[in-house]
Amino acid sequence: MKKLFGSLFGGSKKGPLSATIQPTGETFEVPKNNTLLQTALSEGVNFPYHCTVGTCGNCRCKLIEGDVKAIMDFSYTLSEAEIDEGYILACQALLKSDITIELEADAHTPNHPLETYKGKITATNMLTHDIAEVSVELDRAISFTAGQFADIGIEGFDRHRSYSFASAPVQGGQTSLTFHVRNVPGGSYTEWLFEKDRVGEAFELHGPSGAFWLRTSEEPILGVAGGSGMAPLKAILDEALANKIDRPVTYLFGARAQRDLYCLEEMKSLTEQWPNTFKFVPILSDEPEDSDWTGKRGLVTDFINDETTGFAVSDSHAYLCGPPGMIDATLVKLEEANISLDHIHYDKFLDSRQLESSN
User: What are the structural domains, with CATH classification, of the chain?
Assistant: First the structure.
């Protein structure tokens, strides 16, 4: 009744509105016209994010109480099922009332300090015709969780680019890192990197960030990746092996043709060393019909089924990483398979063109 009278007679709350994050109980005021994410980060909250423009989905959280206004329709990025369950994008949410949101809680939730480092490129190694492994050295040690990413800034460019750590972290931190970088046509960063030898070039690294990491569970792991999306999934699996994680794994890797496949020896090694069943399934979408390829052909989404995985997809935890189109199509297939939404974890790889078109 009090709420009804308040709305009828102008009793709505004056001044800044507040946001409370569960299960931590953190509460902070959100100034008018500031997004939930913008304010959370300014308050030092360890809030997952990536693109900040409503495209990647990393800042997805569940609205438990209150109301928000979407700057950009959440359905552009979130599925109908996610929206029905109350998920919102913090980077696109303006508060209309005091709110309570829920962020995923896990014993292994990353909580590394977000800092800026100086670094230099120490080596580049071509993994495919358009993906390079870039090795770098930082001025001091960084700690991160496998699956996370860092923002890289290079002098002369007006914005950073985000790249996932391509190897499992070292206990106690490390100064040597590797990234997988794809040469994006028209991408100023990657054109700069690939046009000549960049060993010795300086950069700034800001990180670590990201909500893509292995959750605590006994359920099977379904990995789905494409292109340089190999990097974070490989790092997650390498770390899981080191930690003796004993869960069945099926990893579906999508590529256009054989020349786009890489890390095959690493996948073979994981298959041989994994303490449980491990299936790596490369799938080619545009391989010439008369080639010597004897593996699977089509799209990764064609093979998201119990027969291919060897376990019930509905009972698995799914980890998706790669281009937005692949992620979105995979989300639809997983929802059709009745997998729980909180068992789906993804990282959309956005290139500069996609980021600019979202602004």
Answer: 13-102 (3.10.20.30), 115-211 (2.40.30.10), 221-349 (3.40.50.80)
pLDDT one-digit tens code per residue, 297-318? 999 999 999 999 999 999 999 9
171, 164 contact by CB (below 8 A): no
Half-sphere exposure of 223 (CA within 13 A, CB side): 30
Report yes or no on whether pTM surpasses 0.90: no
